[in-house]
Amino acid sequence: MKISNNWLKEYINTDLKSEKIGEYLTDIGLEVEGIDPFESVKGSLQGIVVGKVLTCEQHLNADKLKVTTVDVGSGKILNIVCGAPNVAAGQTVPVAVVGTKIYGKDGSSFDIKEAKIRGEVSQGMICAEDEMGLSDDHGGIMILDENKFEIGKDFADYFELTNDQVYEIGLTPNRTDAMSHYGVARDLNAYLSTHQNNSNFEKVISKPLNIEGTTDFQIEVEDSELCPRYIGAVIENVEVKTSPDWLKNRLKAIGLSPINNIVDITNYILHGLGQPLHAFDADKISGKKVKVGVNEKGTKFTTLDGVERTLNGTEIMIKDGENNPMCIAGVFGGQNSGVSENTKTIFLESAYFNPVGVRKGAKFHSLNTDASFRFERGVDPNMTRTTLTHAIAMIEEIAGGKMVGELLEHYPTKIEDHYIILRFSKVEQILGTKIHKEKIKEILKSLEITVLNEIQNGLEISVPAYRADVTREIDVIEEILRIYGYNKIDSPQKISFTPVKLSFDDQDALENSWARTLQSNGFNEVMNNSLTSVKDEKDAVRLLNPLSGDLAFMRKSLLEGLLENADYNIKRKNPNIKFFELGKIYHKKETYLERKQVAILVSGRDEAENWLQPKSITDFSRLKSYVKVLLDVLPVSIEEKYLEDVRFSDAIELTVNGETVARLGKVAPELLKDADLSQECFYAEIELEVAQSFRAKENLKFKDIPKFNTTRKDLALLIDKNVTYAELYKAARKNPSKYLKNINLFDVYEGENLPEGKKSYAMSFELLNEEKTLEDKDITEVMNSLIKTFQKEFSAELRS
Predict the structure, then answer these.
(1) pLDDT digits (tens, 9 = 90+) for 647-679
(2) What are the CA-CA distances from residue 80 to residues 69, 140, 141, 150 (Å)?
(3) What is the dihedral of CA 632, 635, 636, 640, to 10 degrees?
(4) Could you give the angle at the alpha carbon of 642 between the alpha carbons of 677 and 721, nearest 5°?
(5) CA dihedral in degrees (568, 569, 575, 580; nearest 10)?
(6) Coil, strand or helix at 169
(7) SS3 category, 54
(8) Pairing relation of β-strands 458-463 and 418-423?
């Protein structure tokens, strides 16, 4: 947001320099990102003086050049070569003397130097209007009235040039009250009045109206929820023309292009006082009636930019007496009802529209205007009438119009201020310091927050409606702090805390623990947009008012986003991927479903290449090991089974009592192709809420480290190729022995010296008796039992 220093001082009288104002604005939350100079005429005509052409003769060596002598009042007659066709002796002209910098419209510049042009000395330049930045006219040099312009006087003295400083403010979206010069001045005054007492700020009030005659125009608001307040005025005999220079310079300073006096006035009020206005050509309003409501779905409407749009039937619309749409309320005007150079009578509106309704209309039609930006966040409903009277006064002064009839107003229910109870103890608790209650009251007064009543340890207060973001006690405390000064709050030198009992009911703690574990294993966390496009709309949640077609659905999986992250990195020569994301996915079945997951994607090398370990390509087993590390914190027994999922070419599912805890596998080639990936990727997703539900059932338990050593026994099994390790693991886990603690697959062999259709699995089994050393008979009993199980269920053979 751009704020002009000259414009700002129309509302607050202070002698502070712009740098100091920028510092104070930043201190109170209106962060000034830069201060840039503005000149209505680049260079401010410096070095250009009024001169008189004494002689003008044809250049001997150039048909299109003239050699002139010019008196510029310095006592020295200048010899100037000029190429303008209209130069002649006796003319009074603007002259750029040697040393002057001339600026072009494209930002370029050049210095006037004494030079020889085709053999003749030239000691300056007689200027055209466009060469000085006064207009686009390049028909010849500018000829001045000798009765008004004095020879030798600075040319700039005859113009009202504007030199300004423009603040670039990085305004946060909640600060709709500061989206104007008046709002910024009001905030600056709150700071100065409580710190320095050297500002002069007056609240803007309504202008008196000079009403002539009556009007036949009427207004009708069909739904007060869509438009709680609407005011209109009819102004006749306006002359639509170019705005005066002061108004054009105000708008140019903040980056706006002047259009005509009526439009410029509405823009001046918008950026000056924060209230969007809209002017209609009254002669184009059928039935002399303005209606606020909705049009039927499918109605065609051409906006000011010449684009024909199809209404969806929910937009707040301004219509004429025959229900013809004239404007998308608070967003964009219509082509057929706008003000033109032929307009003589205007209908000027000022309103407070429902913020949600305006936002829906703006987003549906992909329109983002200065007006919608403000209406969506909530303008000041109590400034609606005041700003309209200021605009009327300006139109009468600048465009010569006269208001006819009374203001036409619809305001059935007043929009009330926010009632809040503020506790002094809460202020001290949040800020960590004690502010005297009288200082608090002073700050509240400076913010136009009214103290209704003093109560025990607090205040009953009324926050003005224009502060749409201040509705809670904590919001008021934030307001007090930013005016009091963040820099005045000392950081504590000592922090004390009391250890609390460890609780497993906190899912955030589980998430943070898993995140730290993954980061310590070399993973990077990513965050992707939950809005996306989908190929398969089945079970997908569609947005009612999407920002675009690419962001029309809520994501059904975290995989696609992680694949995009991988593609982005790989194409930038970072092929080793270890990513994780904590995020939600969304589905629509009988009801809307929302689940939070932790997703892991690995690809490329697991570790950086080195001479000891030149190859460490990521594979499924490495992915599984990461998942196992995370799930080891759960006090449950986890089962594995094969998973059929279109996202994977090979995958398993981890379950507890039949409930899925995680899915992991190798990403299907089709998905890799869609993501433009050529290297293998492995993906896992863990259901956070499910994992937390098992974790929350257990309290923290401690147990001694076993006093006795474990015993490891290995088996090499010859089995059919279609038998999986998961099946072997599941069968072994059913063994009734209490001594069997751990099972692991440490080698797989398929190849020569094996019967056709067979493979070899080498499995290890760890056994432990926590009460005494295991005896050989106990070990033999467990191993024989396992061998019988494998032989019976899988026809396994022992390899020697």
Answers:
(1) 999 899 999 888 999 999 999 999 999 999 999
(2) 6, 15, 13, 20
(3) 0
(4) 95
(5) -100
(6) strand
(7) strand
(8) antiparallel
The per-residue DSSP string of 644-663 comes to --TTEEEEEEEEETTEEEEE
Strands (E) located in 5-131: 12-13, 32-39, 48-58, 66-71, 77-82, 92-97, 101-103, 109-111, 115-117, 120-122, 124-126
Of 36, 55, 43, the closest CA to residue 96 belongs to 43
> Token pair for residue 144?
């001045």
Neighbours of 433 (CB within 10 A): 13
Percentage helix, strand, coil, to 5, in the chain?
Answer: 25, 30, 45
C-alpha to C-alpha distances, 386 to 270, 277, 393, 602, nearest whole angstrom: 12, 12, 11, 62
Report d(CA 188, CA 24) in Å as an integer: 7
- Cβ(176)–Cβ(377) under 8 Å? yes
Give the chain's length: 800
Distance separating alpha carbons of residues 634 and 510, to the nearest angstrom: 10
The residue written with tokens 């109170």 in the block is 28
Consecutive 10-residue averages of pLDDT for the chain (800 residues): 93 91 93 90 89 94 92 93 93 94 79 92 92 82 92 89 90 90 94 81 90 92 95 96 92 92 95 95 94 94 93 94 94 92 95 94 91 92 95 95 94 94 92 90 94 93 93 94 88 67 73 93 94 85 83 92 95 93 91 93 84 75 91 84 89 90 94 93 94 76 78 93 86 90 89 88 92 90 94 89
- Determine if the pTM surpasses 0.70: no
DSSP symbols for 753-790: TS-TTEEEEEEEEEE--SSSPPPHHHHHHHHHHHHHHH
What is the spatial distance between Cα 191 and Cα 194, in angstroms, rounded to a whole number? 6
